[in-house]
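Need tokens for this chain, all 210 residues.
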Amino acid sequence: MRAAIVAEFGPLDGIRVEEVETPEPAADEILVRTTVAGVNFADAGMVLGTARRREPPFTPGVEGAGIMVELGEETGVLFFAWFTFPESAQALAAAREEWLTAATGGSQGKTSVGSTDQRWLTAFGAIPPQGNFMSISYENTTGGAFDQTSPIPTTNSAYGTGTVELIGCSQMEVTYDLPGGVSGSAQMYRIIPDGELECYRSTPAGPVTP
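Here are the structure tokens for all 210 residues:
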């Protein structure tokens, strides 16, 4: 696989893209293929050495998203999350002010960070030892600020319920029942073949072959 490598702290043009070995997840880890990654002031600070999170050599990045391709055998828990920020006039104005402050060399604004318009919706549940069906719980978190202890976010740990049903090893259905009559289901499809054969081998309740 390819990775952006920082061999030493310094200018951003010192980052090198290299071919490296694909890591193997430990028994309690998952392997995610990164498909999209944000680049912001935190990444620049990591590369320059002004906001150190690790020592070289390392691959920078704190906001990656991708596709789970391998699951450690002892993980035991399903967890997924998404982040939203409504496109209200107040939220957009606050985000624009923060961006302009950072772009002109000022300190990073905190106007939009920690806004109550932010929503972290997370779902989790214990993976059953057998079968292809599981129940999940949803949490809703508002406010807070990334990498900060203040303001303290508010979390509703009993926000809703749902289910996950595996349909073979290339498809699953996720249901949700949330406050305000928000309920429904979503079909999820595997878009890359990585891990599919391993799924069939490790799922006794599933079909023997793809």
